[in-house]
């Protein structure tokens, strides 16, 4: 009688441990999938960041700025004002 009871207890423990293993493996798969998706998103952000740095470097090259300044001077007749010509205007903040 005692050995039958022990056998049922052991069988219940084996079944319970098998269910725990299945649950943990399922949770592991879910977390791994989330990690993989996050890693892919990180890689996309890194690629975008690299492209933005390259674009910034392109737009801020000295020769490009000099060309824009030259165009502004020649085609539009723009020039940098003398310090005496600069007028600062203080803006009053409106009460909220």
* Number of E-type strands: 0
Beta-strand proportion: under 5%
Q: What is the chain-wise order of helices and strands?
A: HH
Radius of gyration: 35 Å
Structural class: mainly alpha
Q: Percentage of helical residues?
A: over 70%
Residue runs with pLDDT of under 50 for 5 or more positions: none
Shape: elongated
Number of helices: 2
Average predicted local confidence, pLDDT: 91
Mind describing the biggest β-sheet? none
Distance between the termini: 86 Å
Describe what you observe in this structure.
- The chain is mostly helical and 96 residues long.
- Helix content is 74%, strand content 0%.
- It is built from two helices and no strands.
- The chain is elongated, with a radius of gyration of 35 Å.
- The relative contact order is 0.04.
Quick structural gist:
By secondary structure, this protein is mostly helical.
What brief labels describe this structure?
96 residues
Element layout with pairings:
Elements: H1 2-59, H2 62-74
């Amino acid at each position: 009688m005692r050995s039958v009871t022990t056998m049922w207890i052991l069988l219940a423990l084996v079944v319970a441990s098998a269910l725990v293993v299945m649950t943990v493996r399922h949770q592991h798969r879910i977390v791994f999938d989330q990690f993989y998706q996050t890693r892919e998103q990180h890689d996309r952000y890194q690629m975008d960041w690299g492209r933005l740095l390259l674009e910034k470097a392109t737009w801020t090259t000295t020769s490009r700025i000099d060309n824009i300044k030259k165009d502004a001077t020649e085609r539009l007749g723009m020039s940098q004002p003398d310090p005496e010509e600069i007028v600062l205007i203080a803006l009053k903040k409106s009460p909220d």
